[in-house]
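Chapter summary example: a protein plus zinc ion.
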Amino acid sequence: MIWRACRNTLPTKLNLTRKTIIDNPTCDRCSSNVEDSLHALWGCSGLVKVWDGDRWSFQTREAFADFKHLCGWIMENEKSPELFAIRDPKQVAQKRWDEIKTANPLPNRSRPQPIPKWTAPPPNIYKINYDGAISNADNKAGVEVVIRDCNGEVIASLIQQLEQAYQPVEVEAITACRAVEFGSEIGVDCAIMEDDSKVIVKALRNKDNGLLSIAPMVNDVSLFSSLYSKLSYSHIRRNVNEVAHCLARLTLITPNYTVWMKDVPFRTLPFVQAYLATL
Ligand SMILES: [Zn+2]
């Protein structure tokens, strides 16, 4: 409205008279002056109560040619944009934006995502999780396997130390080979092999022996897989493969070869129990 008043486009009686809509421009409030924008909003004696107070004391001191002149004077002399409801557009926009944000809070982007966790296989199928570990300092590697049923109960687990620090992908391939062999040894018939190495999972799925260093192991896994009635390969994130991962570290400090039936080593028990506690 302030803008329209400055532009003299308000439907004041003077403007309506100029457009021949009415024929008398006299202010209805005071019946003594022509009602233009300045008079209607500022000068009319009927507005005394509105502009009462020290803040507006200049009303009686200063004379203005029109409403635009009045606004210019306020901005120039009072240094207060809030005076006469004239506000800094930036401040108004910021205030409106703050109000909108308060009313419609944005989704919290830092909200923590649900932590992925290991899931048990469907009934009558076992999950064979495996992982490898390497210690270049000791020139050793280790393989580990843990087999669980549809209730998350451990059927068997093993760790085996290797007297050589292989390349990571080689250790993973050796471990996959040992895992599929171990499952077959204890009589598992339907299983999902689960590993945190995408390279190995892809190679086993496609029976891809293109990588020379792991070709013999991929072929062996393929041969052992024929002993199962159903065997599939699944990728799992490392932090979800924590039982296998923890076991693999254990292999580096445990010589030889150890099998636990219906159990896992004490060190990895908390991870198994944590899963069982969520059931
Ligand atoms: Zn008047």
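Key point: DSSP finds eleven helices and six strands in the chain.
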